[in-house]
Model the fold of this input.
Amino acid sequence: MPTPPVPTTASESLPGKQRPILLDAAFLRLWTGATASGLATWALPFVLGFAVLDRTLTATDLGLLLAARTAGFLAAVPVAGVLADRHSRRGVVLWAGLAAGAAAPLIVAGLGRSVLLMAAAAALAGAGQGACRPAFQALTAEVVDAGRRQQANAAMTLSVRVTTLTGPSLTALLAVFLDTRALLLGIGLLWLVAALVPGPGARAETEETASAERPERVSFLAEFADGVREARRHPWFLAGLAALTAVIATGYSATGVALPLVSRDEYGTEVVLAGAMTAYTAGALAAALLIARWRPRSAGWTALAGLAAYGFAPLSLMVPVHPVVVMAAYAVAGIGIELFNVPWFTATQREVAPDKLARVSSLDFLLSYGLAPVGLVLIAPAIDTFGTRAVLAVCALTCFAAPAVAALVPSARHFSHRSETPSGAEREARRAA
Done:
């Protein structure tokens, strides 16, 4: 029998009666580790790009290393989901961080000498990154009480956006004083922070007792299938995950491939590309600050509407418009994606059985982000075959339609399989927010 979600009280749910989540020492340690892992994840391809610029790597080598990292990520995510539910989530974060950290000196050792060694190290780095994702998601639910998880998830995503906004300039500044090898070793140090700084979660104290009561160990595939069955218990989750996967596979692909092409061919400058991505990050930052305090009356519908807002990004690229319009569209997309992300993570932590949370989270990351490379691979040939405008129209239509279809699932309104009528505590919290 799955463990039912822990009910929250009105006092737990009232944002106005809470101190800032980053003043909680346990969460601050977790947030620091997650931020370090996010920065290290982002920095690796950027730093390897410097190796291409100084001709230590070729563009083909870079593509191979990034493909190896993606393969490691996809292979590790489901394994980590099972291990994080079977053992300590903190232990999975530790070993995942150490593995990714060990990959950095191996990449340095192979730089300019052995692409095969670098590819194996990149796969190891990807495996560490993939293993961290479901473990951090489940560990957040252990460290933070139910009433403050939305604030905690907003703080997590805020760190990602700040990293994205400040990371390029910071890395470029460091590159003035440090060579590529030193920067790669710095990425390894970030992974050590991610591995060592977070503290234990609530399950750590009872894990030994729980393992004694656990029935005979079943196979890995059976345990992962058990997580899939848990996900199927929540129609809102399946519908939202399908919508998220569709938006990432089309909208993100339009951003990754079509935006640079349109910026070059239609506007003749890279300013539109840089401005759109900056506007997207700024919008996401603003939305993260908003959703940390705001409790929408229909959280699921609000989140899905935010996800659908990503459709404005490819829509703005279909016809020549003023560059400010493109940047504004990307700002709206950034706002929308965070209005989706934070309630989505919070609902998953609330609704999914705690002993299956990491497996369900791994399924989330595996499908939504795992299929993103497929969209990136297909969109360029599609543009060559059907034309930019037709492909962007399909991307925009998919981004608008997929969340709308997901919203038709009855439990999607509140991202909950329980009663569609909010409890008295929830109504009081929403009024206070």
Observations:
- The mean pLDDT is 86.
- The two ends are 35 Å apart (CA to CA).
- Residues 47 and 180 are 7 Å apart (CA to CA).
- DSSP finds 18 helices and no strands in the chain.
